[in-house]
Amino acid sequence: MTERYADVIIDIAHEKVDKVFQYRIPPELAEAVCPGVRVHVPFGRGNQEKVGYVVDISAETDYPAEKIKAVIAVDERGMSAESRQIQIAYWLKSQYGSTTIAALKTVLPVRQKQKPLEKKSVLRCLTPAETARAAAACAEKHQRAKARMLEALVTEEELPYELVRQKLNVAASTLQALEKQGYLKIERKTCYRNPVRVTDRREDRPVLHPVQQRIIDEVVQSCREEHPGVHLVHGVTGSGKTEVYLGIIEQVIAMGKQAIMLIPEIALTYQTLLRFYKRFGDRVSVMNSTLSAGEKYDQIERAKAGEIDVIIGPRSALFTPFPHLGVIVMDEEHENSYKSETSPKYHARETAIQIASLCGAAVVLGSATPSLEAYYRAGQGQYRLYEMKERPGSRVLPMVHITDLRRELKEGNRSMFGRKLRDLMEERLAGGEQTILFLNRRGYAGFVSCRACGHVMKCPHCDVSLSEHRNGLLTCHYCGYQERKPGKCPVCGSPYLMGFKAGTEQVEEAIHREFPGARVLRMDADTTRKKESYEKILSAFADEEADILVGTQMIVKGHDFPGVTLVGVLAADLSLNRNDYRAGERTFQLLTQAAGRAGRGERPGEVVIQTYQPEHYSVVYAARQDYEGFYGEEIAYRELMGYPPVEHMLAVLIVSRVQEDGEKLGEKMAAFVRKAMGDVKGLRVIGPAEASIGKLSDWYRHTLYLRHGDYQVLVEAKDRLERFCKEQEQREQTVQFDFDPMNTY
Ligand code: ADP
Ligand code: ZN
Ligand code: ZN
C-alpha cells in the first residue's frame, strides 16, 4: 500500500501558513483525514501532543520516510469555521492552480492586535428645513463639499463617519468647520449601535412589484431546502434588482442566517451603501481595499462572533467566515474584476457557488448584461433564471444613434467627433445639460484595421484579431500564426490600414480645441491614481462643476447623474477588436451599460455610438438593448470555435528571463501533454506562441492554450504539467495557469 502524507499547520493564521509540517497518515485514519479536518499530532522534540489542521494530502515527501511522525488521531470536535476556510483554500488550489500557501493567504485574514473600536458618526444639529437652508447658502457661495454634506443630512439625522469621508468625499477639516458653525456634531462611541437614524423609514421602502416579490419569495423558499441552488436575475439597469437583494437578505436574516453581498469595488458608491445602512443599520459592515489589514481583520472577527449579518464588498468579502451563511448575492455578475489577477486566479462566481454548496446557502447573481457563462448555464437548467424587463415608474430607455466613422472619413471629417455627436454636444452645452464621453479602458488596442472600409486583420485559424508587434508582423497570440502587415487593405485597396491609437488625454485636448469654453473633467488610470480622487471627480461632476466628463471606467452602478442627457462612445471598435474571444461580449456590455447612464433624471437621454463596424452584431444589439438577440449570435460563435462557456480553456503562461528558455519549455510542455493525454478525446493543445505582450519588465512571455469540454480534464492537464515542470532543468522561469481567462496574455 502506498503511503500518504498530510500537510499540517499548527497555528492557523495568515502570517504563519508557510510553517507546514508533514505527517504520515496511518492506514486506520486514511479515510478520516482530508483537507480541513483537525488532527492531533506529536510536535517538537518532546513530541508534545498538539492540535493542527490538515491543509493538503500528498503521496510524496521530501524527507526520509522513516523520520516522519504519524498523525495520532482525528479531532472529535468536528469541523470548525477554520476547517471550512481550509477546505475552500484547498479547492482554490486544486481548481485554479497555485501553491497551498497562496491559497491559504487568499482565504485567511491577516491577524492583528486590535485597539478597542471607536465608531464615529456625523449627527445633524438643526431641523431638516434649517439644514436645507444652510445647504442652499453654501451652494450659493460655491462651498460644494459643505453643501453636499448638509444636503445629505436633510434626509438622514445621522450618518456613519466613514461613509461621509470616503463616499461622500467630505474632508475632515470641512466637517470640523461645520461642527464649529453648529450645523452638525461628530460623535464618538466605543460600541456599535445603529449608525443611521432615518427621519422616516417608510419612505425607503417602495411597494414591490409582483415580479420583484416573486423573485424574493422563490429565492427565500429555496433557502429552506437542502440545496438552495443558483439564481440568475437578468434585469435592465434601474429595474429594481437592488431592491430584490435587500428583500432577500432581510428575510434570510430573519431566518437567523447571514449574507454576503458582493459589489465590484468601483460600484461601492455612497448611494448604494446608504441603502444597505438604512435597511440593516449596524448589522451591516463594508469591506473595501482602502481598509487597513487591522480593520479587515476586525470585520472578520465581528462576522465570526455573530455581531453582523451582512458584509458588503468586492471579491475578497467572499471569504467572510459567517457561522450560518444563508445567501451570497453577486451584483454586476459579468464584471471582470470578479476574477482574481493573482494566483490563485479564481473567479468569484464559481467560488461563491462552491462556498454556498459547502454551507447550504443560496447564490443570487444579478446583471443587466449577464456573462455568457451565467446565461448559458441558466439555459441548461443549472441556474434558475428570472427576468426584469421594465423600469419602475415612467422612465424610458434612451434613444440610441449609431455613427459610421467610415462615412465620416469619406465625407472629409477627420475629427474624433462625428457630426451627430458634435451637434448634440453643442445643444447640451447651450442648454446647460451634461455629457459623458466614453473611451475604452485600453487607450489603444494592437489591432489593425482599414479606416476606409472597416476591415479588420484576423487570424485565419482562431477568428480573433491579429496584434501588431514592433517588428511589423501581425501575430495571433492564441496559435502563433504570423503574417507581414500588408501595404494596403486586402478588401478595398485603401492605404489607410493602421493601428488605432487614442487616449483620454487626446480626447480632452480635442474638446478644448473644438468646444472652447466647455468645462471638462477627465477620469482614467492617471487621474484616479490618488486615493479618493475617483470619488472627488465623480462628486464634482454630480455637483455640475463640469459640462463634460471624459472617462474610461465610469460605467458606475449606483451613481445617478440626473444632469446627464447625452452619452457618447467615441470608438466602440477599440473593445470590439481586442485579440481575444471575449471582445464581442465586452463591447456589448460596455455599450449597454454606457447607454444606461443617459437620462437617469427627468429629461430623456440620448446615446451616440461611433464605430467603424456599425453592422457588427454587438453594436446592433446594444443599440436595440436586445440581450437575447446578442446572446444568440455570440453563443453560436463560441459553439463554432469551441470557446468558453461551451468548452473550457486553460491558459499557460511561461515567463522566462531568456527568450529561448521560454520558447523551449513551451514546446516541451506542448509535446508532453499531446503525448501524455493523447488518448483524451477532444483535448486541443494550441501553441506555444509569443504572448500578446511578448516582453514585460525584461521577462519574456510565451503562452500555451488547452481546450476541452470538461473542466476536470484541464485540471488534470494542469496537475501533470506542474509535475512535468518540476522535473525540468531549473532555469530562471515560472509557469502560471489561468482557467477560462478574462484577459489576453
Ligand atoms: P437596479 O439595481 O436594477 O439598477 P434599483 O433597485 O437601484 O435598480 O432601482 C432603481 C430605482 O427604482 C431606485 O431608485 C429604486 O429605489 C427604485 N425602485 C425599485 N423598486 C421600486 C418599486 N417597486 N417601486 C418604485 N420604485 C422602485
Ligand atoms: Zn479597406
Ligand atoms: Zn490563431
Verbal overview:
The structure is a single chain. With about 750 residues, the protein is an alpha/beta fold. The protein folds into five domains: about 5-105, PriA, 3(prime) DNA-binding domain (GIY-YIG endonuclease), CATH 3.40.1440; about 115-190, no CATH class; about 210-390, 3-Layer(aba) Sandwich (Rossmann fold); about 400-445 and about 500-640, Rossmann fold (3-Layer(aba) Sandwich); about 650-740, 2-Layer Sandwich (Alpha-Beta Plaits), CATH 3.30.70.360. Helix content is about 35%, strand content about 25%. Strand 21 and strand 22 form a beta hairpin. Helix 1 crosses helix 2. Bound molecules: adenosine-5'-diphosphate and zinc ion (2 copies).
Q: What is the straight-line distance between the termini?
A: 43 Å
Structural category? alpha/beta
| Cofactors, ions and other ligands in the entry | adenosine-5'-diphosphate, zinc ion
- Round the Cα radius of gyration to an integer and report it: 28 Å
Unreliable runs: 192-202
Helix content: 25-40%
Give the total of beta strands. 31
* Largest beta sheet: strand ordering: 12-13-11-14-15-10-16
CATH class bucket of the largest domain? Alpha Beta
Could you report the average pLDDT, rounded to the nearest whole number?
A: 86
How many distinct domains? 5
CATH superfamily of the largest domain: P-loop containing nucleotide triphosphate hydrolases
CATH topology grouping of the largest domain: Rossmann fold
Number of helices: 22
Query: What share of the residues does DSSP label as strand, in percent?
Result: 15-25%
- Basic shape: globular
Main sheet record: 7 strands, parallel
The CATH architecture of the largest domain can be named as 3-Layer(aba) Sandwich
